[in-house]
């Protein structure tokens, strides 16, 4: 695994420069994130445990829950699995073509490739690393081959972020609401990661012009950063207080 051009640490994002409307939306998302975790903790449950319940033995690389989670109205999708060291596992979040805003189109390199097409042309938005207690520790982006997605330019991926929403109760209403809110709470970091993803891809292509960069098995994680829910909410509150 090679990590290139990681996005800035959350502490380096200048929240005071964000529009107040965006800060208020992030603050509301922070309340939602905290509330989802609170109601689960009251009964000794957590975000990850909700998607693993009733799924049998936890097996490396297997998608949980089986068949992934998909919202037929928003066309958002996610699954949880494990294969990286230093974490319990991670969520992969996607948006399918029918849920994307107008004008989004696969990168020109998609032409002639055996990538998902039409309504199945999904885009990976972000991955959320989780610890063994079911709490988030980081965000990262991946190369195309990792998730078998259709590659979209970063500007389009960023426009997709507000459209990610899982608005039903399977396999867990708190987990679905939590994931939806996490994308909104950490949107500045996610946008920075997506930009860094594209920068890393371009640098890799220039360094190895004879390789198919999208299928390079030595190029897996393109950008990554640690996150802290409490620190994020505090920074938002301080920015709004100004």
Q: How is this structure best described in words?
A:
The protein has 242 residues and is α+β, with helices and mostly antiparallel strands. Helices cover 36% and strands 17% of the residues. It has helices at residues 20-41, 47-52, 144-147, 154-160, 173-185, 187-207, 229-241, and strands at residues 64-70, 76-81, 89-95, 123-130, 136-142, 221-226. A six-stranded antiparallel beta sheet has the order 1-2-3-4-5-6. Strand 4 and strand 5 form a beta hairpin. Pfam families: DUF6969 (PF22308). This is DUF6969 domain-containing protein.
SSE inventory with pairings:
Layout: H1 20-41, H2 47-52, E1 64-70, E2 76-81, E3 89-95, E4 123-130, E5 136-142, H3 144-147, H4 154-160, H5 173-185, H6 187-207, E6 221-226, H7 229-241
Antiparallel strand pairs: 1-2, 2-3, 3-4, 4-5, 5-6
Distance between the termini: 42 Å
Low-confidence regions: 1-7
- Backbone CA Rg: 17 Å
Structural class category: alpha+beta
Indicate the mean pLDDT.
94
The succession of helices and strands, N to C, reads HHEEEEEHHHHEH
Give the strand tally. Answer: 6
The number of helical elements comes to: 7
Question: In percent terms, what proportion of residues is strand?
Answer: 15-25%
